[in-house]
Amino acid sequence: MKNLKLSPDDYNEVVAQIVDYMDDKHDLQLGQFEAEFFLDELVKKIAPQFFNLGLNRAMEVIHSNVLTLEELLDLEKEIGEGK
User: Fold this and answer.
1) What pLDDT was estimated at residue 75?
2) What angle do CA 75, 80, 83 make, to 5 degrees?
3) Distances 42 to 18, 31, 69 between C-alpha atoms, Å
4) How confident is the model at residue 77 (pLDDT cuts 50, 70, 90)?
5) CB atoms < 10 A from the CB of 46, how many?
6) Domain spans in the chain, listed from the N-terminal domain onward
7) Distance (Å, whole) CA 19 – CA 29
8) Cβ partners under 8 Å of residue 23, min gap 6
9) For position 1, what pLDDT does the model report?
10) Per-residue pLDDT band at 6 (split at 50, 70, 90)
């Protein structure tokens, strides 16, 4: 899996959200460096799971579409043979 990276704007937005969340919910003041470190660690630990989950769901959709296509092709084949 290629390293997943947020755009700089998205990254800064998430860092700001972490700072706000920790202050609001836990009365803990984090600086930007601490919030960036926390985000980087979270991404390292959970990004592979989310990536694999997304990949598995995409494969399920593709498999379902292939089955539907096979059914449609079989139906066309039956209709064509009935002529």
Assistant:
1) 75
2) 130
3) 11, 17, 40
4) confident
5) 10
6) 8-81
7) 7
8) 29, 30
9) 57
10) confident
Burial of 7-27, coded b for 16+ CB within 10 Å and e otherwise, reads eeeeeeebbeebbeebeeeee
66-78 average pLDDT score: 84
Rounded Cα–Cα distance for residues 25 and 66 (Å) = 47
pLDDT bin (cut points 50, 70, 90) of residue 72 is confident
C-alpha closest to that of 39 among 57, 56, 19: 19
Q: Is 83 helix (H, G, I), strand (E, B) or coil?
A: coil
Whole-number CA gyration radius for the chain: 23
Q: What is the per-residue DSSP string for 20-56? A: HHHHHHH-----HHHHHHHHHHHHHHHHHHHHHHHHH
Say if residues 18 and 38 touch (Cβ distance below 8 Å).
yes
